[in-house]
Amino acid sequence: MDFDTSLSAIVYPELKTTHRLDFGLNFHIWRDKIDFVLVDNKVDYVLTEQKPPENDVARHKQQWLHDDYTARHLILGALTDHIYMTYQKHETAKSLMDALTATFTKPSMTKRMYKLKRYVGHKMAEDKSVNEHILEMGSMAYDLECEGLKIPDEVQAVMLMNSVPDSWDEMMTPVRLNMDLDKSGDPDMGLDRVSSRLRAIGVSKESFWRREEDEAKQRRPHFNGHCHSLGEYGHHRAHCNME
């Protein structure tokens, strides 16, 4: 079986689904990804080259119009419905991208407050990988920085510790104490050290859960008799396939 490994095949499906452009998404990351797709489809030049004049060579003009149509619809396909309805009126890919850039890169107190609230209230789910959670928190902090609100590393470290599940409290106590005792401003007790400690705790908890699962399996009662239905050893009648 042949697999399409082009950038479009890898990146664009998520831009059409879970990472469509909306006000809660990092525009700079979205822009990088959509640029990958436009370059891969060889239509990125329409964002920098003006539309050919009416008296231009027909073949060149037709190619530009075709590529602009492709680029415009690739961009529109990566927008949420309400963003799409607002911006689909733009007739060229350049006009569309310029309008999106102006809107999403303009400093906005509303966007800052929305992203700050999302960052402060974010909590790690019990079944989520700690590495994934650390990346999510870092991404949200970067989103805020792009909005002109830089979160200092020491604040990110505190926010990261406060975002773990309540079941982590006992294991987090030594980490918090170490930070309280560190009066020298040692950067090792900052964001990198906290992230490292959380990863270690995550590994420890995952090992504990696996151990508990193995022990639970070993504690399950084993049927030593014969099945009354088929006469086979080691399982109940309910385990038989009676169809």
From TrEMBL:
Name this polypeptide is given: Retrovirus-related Pol polyprotein from transposon TNT 1-94
Organism (species): Rubus argutus
Q: Which Pfam families does the record match to this protein?
A: Retrotran_gag_2
